[in-house]
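$ ./design --mode recover --in tokens.txt
reading tokens...
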């Protein structure tokens, strides 16, 4: 699995989105949106702890999957292989004990492009009866910090408990929320900007949450 993740980091290409000169100004993401992203991520974590990895694979961000799956036979085959590897974790001496989310404090508007104008739940039409359009950021992106306790069988057969600190990148359309996810521990700023080109170019301004692990002593 580690080999596959390393390949993912190398081969992620640009998406079909075409950036233009300059970065359109973005507004702060509302706190209630960030909380909904956290709650959706907690559902993902709960399914991970239960071993329901199909849900985890199905909720991967589709454009991200499309981008990374090309060298692995396409999205469908990539998902099948990912699910197979996740289901084999138990046989490889890995058991997830618990997983929790923490309050996010970094979020962005992303996916700049044309969209229909809506008012009172209905599309606004122009004089020709066609939907009016405007340019705007169409999706939310929220970094949700996560903490996971994992048992790993050591070389001598003993179970060691580790605490993994990471984050999920939760992404959803604005108009109808439907959260999908990118594992933050496997993504670099350059790769994320290839999928969402209007993110800050300065890696420091992306403010990725901490990723690491620590052994828990008995």
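writing sequence...
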């Amino acid at each position: 699995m580690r080999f596959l993740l390393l390949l993912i980091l190398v081969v992620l290409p640009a998406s079909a989105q075409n950036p233009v000169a300059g970065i359109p100004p973005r507004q702060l993401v509302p706190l209630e949106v960030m909380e909904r992203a956290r709650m959706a991520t907690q559902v993902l974590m709960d399914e991970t702890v239960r071993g329901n990895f199909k849900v985890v694979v199905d909720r991967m961000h589709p454009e991200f999957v499309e981008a990374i799956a090309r060298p692995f036979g396409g999205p469908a085959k990539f998902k099948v292989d990912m699910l197979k590897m996740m289901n084999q974790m138990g046989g490889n001496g890995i058991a997830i004990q618990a997983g929790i989310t923490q309050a996010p404090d970094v979020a962005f508007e992303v996916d700049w492009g044309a969209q229909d104008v809506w008012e009172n739940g209905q599309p606004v039409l122009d004089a020709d009866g066609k939907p009016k359009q405007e340019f705007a950021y169409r999706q939310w992106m929220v970094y949700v910090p996560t903490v996971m306790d994992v048992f790993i069988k050591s070389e001598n057969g003993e179970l060691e408990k580790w605490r993994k600190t990471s984050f999920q990148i939760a992404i959803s359309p604005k108009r109808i929320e439907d959260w999908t996810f990118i594992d933050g521990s496997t993504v670099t700023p350059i790769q994320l900007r290839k999928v969402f080109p209007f993110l800050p170019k300065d890696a420091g301004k992306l403010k990725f949450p901490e990723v690491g692990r620590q052994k828990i002593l008995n």
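exit 0
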